[in-house]
Amino acid sequence: MGEVLCTNAVFGCLCCGSKMRPQEQHQEMHTEHEEYFPQELTDFSDVPCPVRSLPPQWYHTVQVRRIRSLRARSNSDPLQGKNLGQALQWQRRGLPFGNASSYLNLEKLGEGSYATVYKGISRINGQLVALKVISMKAEEGVPFTAIREGSLLKGLKHANIVLLHDIIQTRETLTFVFEYVHTDLAQYMSQHPGGLLPYNVRLFMFQLLRGLAYIHHQHILHRDLKPQNLLISYIGELKLADFGLARAKSIPSQTYSSEVVTLWYRPPDVLLGATDYSTDLDIWGAGCIFIEMLQGYPAFSGVSDIFEQLEKIWSVIGTPAEDSWPGVSMLPNYKTEWLTLQEYQPFGNVWDGLGRSMGAEDLAEKMLKGCPRERISAEDALLHKFFSTLPCQLHQLPDVRSIFTVPGLSLKPEIHDLYISHRKGSKPDTHHRLW
Fold first, then answer.
1. Domain Protein kinase: where (predicted)?
2. In this structure, is residue 275 part of a structural domain?
């Protein structure tokens, strides 16, 4: 009974956001839609007009131009509103949301422990989408993490949060339909080794903190920040993704699991077994990502266990004690016999990449405080002097508007791109993707 209630709560209409029952919702808001009959995702071989006959650049390139209007519901339309899709025979008007036949598989992008992600295309509007397909076991039903992810994302509408278009449920699978975003921060950094351009780091970091400030204001913790979960669009938009471990933070605070966040980005209080964390959990992860973007490698890359990870952290911020971190000795994993006394090291001495940009070292130190209560909030971090060179209009943007709607703001070519272009004897094309 509980599973049925949870499922009904999640699988309302995604396109209008109403809390009506799905059947009433689609009758009132989408009268042109057909009745929903669950079925398997259509394979490309069944399409009357095979996609391979279409111009390949339609799927893989985009003209990067200044956005002149309010952010649309998705940035995954490669033609930015042009009407080529109307001429495609596989596109159908009146196809309903929530129906598997409304989306086509293009290719497999990746596979995780409980879900497989495919690149797809919507037959409703011709936009590229990402299809996260979750297999459901008959005896277990819908995974709880999927219910939580879907219910949280339905209420989040922000330019720096990945957009959930639709949810499809069949007997065997549960499919989340997201906007398609070209790459993620981990891939972007691997393609530009040695650290990113400080200006681009400033743009990425501002968007990361902007997204965190939004979800923290909604009393939501992401709890799994890492470069692989930060998507990067063709024009440089950064979007928080993978809310499978996210939780709505109740007030007053309650006890949470300490088994969250990938080890390298897990804060010391959680490594020590704390379960009463708050938004400071995400701030530590964001600080680690900040250093990694500037430095070119992870800030704290532990190898085997949480104690080795803690040693890496203590070697920089110093071994904690009650006078500097009240209550630390009461945490479950705090064992004096396992602690090696180490002194605080200036961040600039440890990571020279912080010296490339004014204010970077100070911001990193404010985010990576050992005592969680001393960490800067995402909202305050947006006002830090590190971002003082960015246009002031960024602080007045509506939630759904991208920072790249501000005139003159765009991602710059990385050093690696300039080097490759120089060797080829040509200038980087600023009208196409920068990687």
1. 103-387
2. yes
| pLDDT, position 115 | 85
End-to-end, the C-alpha distance of the chain in Å comes to 49
Please name which of 281, 339, 330, 344 lies closest in space to residue 310, comparing C-alpha atoms.
339
pLDDT of the residue at 175: 93
CATH of the domain at 334: 1.10.510.10
- CA distances in angstroms from 257 to 236, 247, 263, 304, listed in the order given: 33, 10, 14, 20
pLDDT digits over 384-413, tens only? 999 999 999 999 999 999 999 999 999 999
The reply to whether 305 belongs to the active site is no
Q: Does 132 appear as a known binding residue?
A: yes
Residue span of the structural domain in which 314 resides: 183-405
Percent of the chain with pLDDT over 70: 69
368/362 Cα distance (integer angstroms): 10
How far are the Cα atoms of 29, 309, 312, 331, 341 from residue 302, in angstroms, in the given order?
A: 52, 4, 7, 21, 18
Q: Residues 103, 171: one domain?
A: yes
Residue 46 in this model has a pLDDT that exceeds 80: no
Which of 125-129, 252-256, 274-278, 354-358 comes out lowest in average pLDDT? 252-256
102 with 192, same domain?
no
How far apart CA 329 and CA 357 sit, in angstroms, is 36
3-state secondary structure of 108: strand
Q: What is the pLDDT, as a whole number, of residue 420?
A: 60
Amino acid identity of residue 50, one-letter, is P
Identity of the residue numbered 32: E
Residue that the structure tokens 């985010």 belong to: 367
- Report which of residues 113 and 325 the model is more confident about: 325
- Could you tell me the CA-to-CA distances from 114 to 148, 244, 329 in Å, in that order? 14, 11, 37
Q: Which of 224, 242, 269, 282 is catalytic?
A: 224
Global confidence as pTM: 0.75
Peptide bond into 326 cis (omega under 30): no
